[in-house]
Design brief:
single chain, seven-stranded mixed beta sheet, 13 strands, 20% strand, globular, binds zinc ion
Length: 320
């Protein structure tokens, strides 16, 4: 269904500027690229982590910048289905030195991260793309970027850019107590799985124009496969789980993608809802797994997924 261009052209270009961690007791320097995890299987799925609002004193080896990036990487791989596939990922961080620690409208930081009029974060995307290019080469595709703000007062978000069939994605994650949850929701859920939110924010029916747009994006590119606009169990996008006795928690639950009605999700809880569930539900796991396989250049089959997923069944029924 999804035709992906596997253009990981940057790896070779980047090879000359990679540094190894902790070879000396000094500090990292602005622009330096550090490889935190190297893929040993598949094409290598690129993750690039950048920090905003980190000043010179945060850049020591073992300091706040590298510590935060490591924490985010550990969070990214902390649960299934990414936990079992760490060897498919290249994880980089590029050192970005800001002049200020405070991320806000009137404070010049490296990416000028701040809150837009709609309450969502805005930042200098061109500068972000140039920084990511230092790690994976210019013209990159299929890359997940984590921009980590040294601040926690505004709302995390994820946006896609570039061609829809080989898009890059940038998640804004903020340094906070809840950063593990934010990284999983934004960068694994929206980023790798291209999942929709499963929570309700507006007490109203989803507009038809949005349904048309989401249907188009699902049919063309596989976006937001964890939601549907039909409650018919025989045709819903996760119908293959409905009569499987291994998945009694899978059903058809109204409310998702911020709307109360006219849209359905597959389970009561997931990390894509705003509850406390620290797991991806079955349909979300399937979509993330499928995307990892596609990006890695490997074949996907539902049978193989179901075999892999047996180990996840017990741990994802905390709410049942
Ligand atoms: Zn979300």
């Amino acid at each position: 269904m999804i035709k992906l261009k596997s253009l990981f052209v940057g790896l070779i270009l980047a090879a000359g500027i990679l540094s190894c961690e902790n070879l000396d007791d000094g500090s990292y320097v602005d622009g330096e690229t550090i490889l935190l995890n190297k893929a040993t299987k598949g094409n290598g799925i690129n993750i690039v982590m950048l920090g905003d609002g980190y000043i010179w004193s945060d850049l020591e080896t073992g300091g706040l910048y590298i510590g935060t990036m490591r924490k985010c990487m550990d969070a990214f791989f902390s649960i299934e289905p990414v936990k079992s596939f760490k060897e498919y990922f290249n994880v980089y961080t590029v050192i970005c030195e800001s002049r200020n620690t405070f991320v806000s409208e009137n404070s010049a930081t490296y990416f000028n991260l701040t809150v837009g009029q709609d309450g969502l974060p805005v930042f200098d995307l061109d500068k972000c793309i140039r920084s990511v290019g230092k790690a994976v080469g210019d013209g990159f595709t299929d890359t997940v970027i984590l921009l980590i703000g040294n601040e926690e007062y505004f709302r995390p978000a994820t946006s896609y850019f570039g061609d829809r069939d080989s898009n890059a994605v940038c998640s804004i994650c903020l340094q906070s107590e809840a950063i593990a949850r934010v990284v999983l929701h934004e960068s694994v859920g929206h980023g790798i799985g291209r999942l929709a939110d499963e929570y309700v924010e507006f007490d109203e029916e989803i507009p038809q124009s949005l349904i048309d747009y989401y249907n188009h994006e699902y049919e063309q590119f596989g976006f937001r496969g964890n939601i549907d606009f039909s409650s018919d169990p025989s045709t819903v996008r996760w119908a293959h789980f409905m009569d499987n006795p291994d998945y009694p928690e899978v059903g058809i639950f109204e409310g998702a993608a911020r709307y109360r009605s006219g849209i359905w999700r597959s389970e009561q809880h997931s990390i894509m809802t705003d509850g406390d569930a620290m797991y991806f539900n079955a349909r979300c796991r399937e979509l993330i797994y499928k995307r990892i396989k596609e990006l890695a250049g490997e074949e996907y089959s539902i049978e193989e997924f179901l075999r892999y997923d047996k180990k996840n069944l017990a741990g994802t029924r905390l709410w049942n």
